[in-house]
Every structure is written in C-alpha cells, then in structure tokens.
C-alpha cells in the first residue's frame, strides 16, 4: 500500500466548478462529487431542498493525491474558501495503485 | 377590494400555498421530492411561455409594446438602487448583503406572475401575451445594478480562485428559467394557435392542478426559510420585505399611467416590479457576491415578500389598477 493525502471539501454547489478547476490546475488527476443532504453550522441549519434555486445546496468533493500536489491545491482552495461557504479537511490514506493519483 | 382579497385567498392555488406554509411552520415532515419540484417548475415555465408566445403570434409588434419593454427594463435596473438605499438607511445589513438583497427586488418571481395571471383570468380581465416576454426581460438587469452597488468604494480585488470568465454571464442569461421561458415563448410564437391545439391537453387543461402542487412546495420552502432565517434579520429588514414591493408596485403604476396600459397589463407590470426573485438571482449571487449571506436575501424574498404578494399584494395591485382605470 502507498501513502497518499485524501482531501474532503464540503462546499456550496455553486462553487463546485470553481473548486474543480482549482483541483485540476493543481495537478490532481481526479475527484468525486457527492450531494450533501443537510447540516448545521455557524448557528443555522441548512437543508438540500429548502429553496427552489438550489443555491444553498452543498456538495462533498473527494480527491486523493500525493502530498506535493495536495499542497499546491490547498493554497488556491484556501483563497476559494475565503469567499465561499465550505469546510476543508485533509487526511492520510493508503492506496493500492499510486500511479492513478 | 374585500371581495377580491377573499377570492384570492380562497382560490385553490393560494389555499395550497397556505397549507405548505403552515405545514413548514408547524414542522411537518411533509416534503415534495426535489426532482419532482424542479420538473413542476419547468412545466409551469413552459406552459406560461407557450401561452405568451401563442398570444404574441396573433398580435404585431407595436411601438407601445416596445415602450413597455423599455420601461420594464428601466424599472429592473433602477429598483435595486432604491432597495439598496432603503436597506442601508434603515437596517444594519452590510453593503454586500444589502446589494445582494437589492438584486432580488429588481428581478422578478415568475410564480407570482403566474398567480396574478390566474386571478386576472378568473376576473375575466384580459392581459397581453407579451407580458411573459417582459417578465423574462426583467430577470437580469437588476443583477448588474447590484454588482455596481456592491463594488462602489471597494478596491478592485483578485478574482475568486477557480472562477472563469463568462460563468456569471452564463448563470444570469442561460439559467434554466430564462432558457425555458424564452425558448417556450419563441416556440409558442412559431406554432401559433393551430400548433397550440396539439399540446393544449398537456399544457392548458392540467395547468391549474400543477400550479397547486407547485404552490404547495413553494409554501413549504417559504415556511422553512422563514422558520430558520428570520432570526438573522432585524425588524427594519423584515419590514423591507413588505414595504419594498409596495414602493416598486407604486412606481410601476406611475409608469403604467405614462404608457397608457389597460387594467390587466398594469396589474402584471405592478406584480412583476413588486415581486422578488428566488430562483435566478440567488444562484447568480452565489457566484457574483459569495460573501453575501444567502439566509438574508432568501428569507426576505421567499419567506416574506412572496407570501405577502400571493395573499395581499396581487389583489391590492389589481384594485389599484382598476382604480387607475376608473373602474374600481
């Protein structure tokens, strides 16, 4: 098994494409997006189907890469999260096929 | 006025809206599946766009029509400036939050418009088919004014990481509601009355029932927004959700007198001006002004102004329009 970094970014749906571009330009080879249903943060609840515009929907973006590529991505993601609603975490994971990341 | 208000309040569309609103306020677990609600929204926009287009196919473009478009676009550009000023003077909202909220009040709510056309139809008052196109034209200008207001006195900052040129343009001008509404309007104008016969069993007859379903969902959305969002607003901001539509409708009424519009079109121009967006503008604001708090502008537009317009505003605007025509 090979050590890698796993990024989990919970971010508003409207900023998903922006985050995707940041990950791609940093050199991350792939990511997966899953919908978030509901949550609580900063004193208020949010829920996926609350407004017709879906502008308050949140998604979870998951990406795995080497530490060096992840550091590049984190620099720009920090700027993105300065403007948009989101939570970012990075953890250590092991993968079977490192050439895919 | 009282009869009209009762007729509106006891119409199935409004009663289903109230049902949804009460259910959400009482914390019922009732919900309309998200994908189904989006399908209903597309159906309604297609139906209203087709109806407007078919009506337009029977009437030539006139100078008066162009005048209505020009005034409507001018209203959409200017109403956010008034809304922004009112919010900055009376409430504690920040410059960004006030600008983002103002954008919603210059844009329109197509469901409020549809509800108004239903009231006009039930009262046997005619309106022009091209008012649907006027509604589409009033979707976007307010966003430009809001961005200008938000950027005033602010140093030019770097673009948000990952942003792309043209993404806001696409969101504003090519969002689902604009594409479906304008597309259906053009298709309706092309197929005319003869083509309409082929699709009327789907788009005309079930329209009222689908509108009831949609308003039930809107009531749920409005109630949930109000339940969760009102704490973030002070009394002045909450009051804005009621008095701003009245200011906008008054300006539209003055414009209607200048344009010489009839009762139906005056009512619809007042409704369009008084309504606040909750579909196109919130999405655009997340891209253009991501620092603005969505709970503020969505609570105001969806939780306060929308119910006010549905229950009180529409019959009030119709009464004023009738009074202006000397037919109250």
From TrEMBL, chain A:
GO terms for biological process: regulation of nitrogen utilization. Pfam families: P-II. GO terms for molecular function: enzyme regulator activity. This is Nitrogen regulatory protein P-II. The lineage of its organism: Bacteria, Pseudomonadati, Pseudomonadota, Alphaproteobacteria, Hyphomonadales.
UniProtKB/TrEMBL annotation, chain B:
The chain crosses the membrane at residues 61-87, 99-121, 127-151, 172-191, 203-223, 235-261, 267-289, 296-318. The keyword RNA-binding does not apply. Keywords: Membrane, Transmembrane, Transmembrane helix. InterPro entries: Sbt_1. The keyword Kinase does not apply. Pfam families: Sbt_1. This is Sodium-dependent bicarbonate transport family permease. It comes from Henriciella barbarensis.
């Amino acid at each position: 098994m090979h050590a890698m970094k796993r990024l989990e970014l919970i971010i508003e749906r409207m900023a998903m494409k922006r985050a995707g571009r940041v990950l791609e330009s940093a050199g991350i080879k792939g990511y997966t997006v899953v919908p978030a249903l509901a949550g609580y943060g900063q004193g208020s609840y949010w829920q996926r189907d609350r407004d017709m515009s879906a502008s308050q929907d949140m998604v979870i973006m998951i990406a795995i890469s080497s530490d060096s590529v992840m550091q590049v991505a984190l620099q720009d993601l920090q700027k993105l999260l300065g403007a948009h609603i989101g939570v970012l975490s990075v953890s250590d994971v092991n993968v079977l096929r490192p050439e895919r990341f | 006025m009282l009869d009209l208000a009762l007729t509106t309040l006891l119409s199935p569309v409004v009663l289903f809206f109230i049902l949804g609103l009460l259910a959400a306020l009482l914390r019922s677990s009732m919900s309309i599946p998200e994908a189904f609600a989006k399908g209903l929204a597309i159906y309604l926009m297609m139906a209203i766009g087709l109806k407007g287009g078919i009506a337009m196919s029977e009437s030539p473009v006139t100078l008066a029509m162009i005048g209505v478009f020009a005034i409507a676009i001018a209203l959409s550009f200017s109403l956010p400036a008034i809304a922004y000023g009112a919010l900055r003077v009376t409430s504690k909202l920040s410059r960004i939050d006030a600008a983002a909220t103002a954008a919603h009040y210059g844009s329109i709510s197509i469901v409020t418009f549809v509800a108004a056309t239903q009231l006009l139809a039930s009262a046997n008052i005619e309106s022009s088919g091209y008012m649907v196109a006027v509604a589409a034209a009033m979707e976007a200008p307010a966003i430009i004014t809001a961005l200008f207001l938000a950027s005033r006195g602010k140093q030019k900052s770097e673009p948000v990481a990952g942003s792309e040129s043209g993404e806001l343009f696409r969101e504003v001008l090519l969002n689902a509601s604009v594409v479906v509404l304008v597309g259906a309007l053009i298709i309706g104008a092309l197929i005319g009355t003869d083509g309409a016969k082929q699709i009327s069993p789907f788009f005309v007859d079930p329209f009222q029932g689908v509108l009831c379903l949609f308003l039930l969902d809107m009531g749920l959305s409005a109630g949930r927004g109000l339940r969760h969002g009102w704490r973030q607003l002070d009394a002045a901001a909450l009051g804005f959700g009621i008095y701003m539509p009245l200011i906008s409708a008054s300006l539209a009424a003055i414009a209607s007198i200048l344009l010489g519009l009839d009762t139906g079109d005056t009512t619809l121009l007042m409704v369009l001006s008084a309504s606040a967006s909750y579909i196109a503008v919130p999405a655009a604001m997340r891209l253009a002004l991501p620092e603005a708090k969505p709970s503020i502008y969505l609570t105001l537009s969806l939780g306060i102004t929308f119910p006010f317009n549905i229950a009180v505003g529409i019959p009030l605007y119709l009464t004023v329009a009738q009074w202006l025509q000397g037919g109250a």
